[in-house]
Design goal:
By secondary structure, the chain is α+β, with helices and mostly antiparallel strands. Helices cover 15% and strands 29% of the residues. A hairpin with a 3-residue loop joins strand 5 and strand 6. The radius of gyration is 16 Å and the shape is globular.
């Protein structure tokens, strides 16, 4: 799977035919359900190393100041994982913007520039984020910034 094909689907309802195609393809058919009291739910494909994030439409509408349908789930982002991270297999598809789990922090900064967010703000970096055109990319590093554990891409 090429995650660059997921980016245009950000902000779409889970009932969108293209989103449904992803949720029902392969061995694992995912039926989304928002747990009571929550505003987000996940479609996890552990064997593919991928998790899709959906948000309650009313919560999303308030957050983005947009009119949204009632009782809908909005696709807001996805996580791609390295082998074993949070119990997921390695995501072997194409990551957004040419990212690779082989990239070090040095490569990311060279390709994307300085991040707009860094955690912690000082000391050994654990997570960083770059705002792209219409979406954001966040990465989580391992014990050192040479190892990528997770990539998130979602609505800004």
């Amino acid at each position: 799977m090429d995650t660059n094909n997921l980016i245009p689907l950000l902000g779409k309802e889970s009932s969108n035919p293209e989103v449904q195609k992803i949720l029902t393809s392969g061995d694992q058919k995912v039926k989304l359900k928002l747990p009571a009291g929550d505003f987000q739910t996940y479609a996890e494909f552990k064997n593919l190393g991928l998790s899709l994030v959906f948000e309650d439409s009313q919560y999303f509408g308030k957050k983005t100041n947009t009119k949204q349908p009632k009782n809908a789930l909005i696709f807001i982002g996805f996580f791609a994982y390295s082998e074993g991270e949070e119990g997921f297999s390695l995501f072997e598809g194409a990551l957004p913007d040419g990212l690779s789990f082989d990239h070090s922090r040095q490569v990311l900064v060279r390709e994307f520039g300085e991040p707009v967010f860094r955690f912690p703000p000082s000391g050994e970096v654990e997570e960083e984020r770059w705002d792209r055109k219409g979406y954001r990319v966040m990465v989580k590093y391992g014990k050192d910034p040479e190892t990528l554990l997770m990539v998130y891409c979602g609505i800004r």
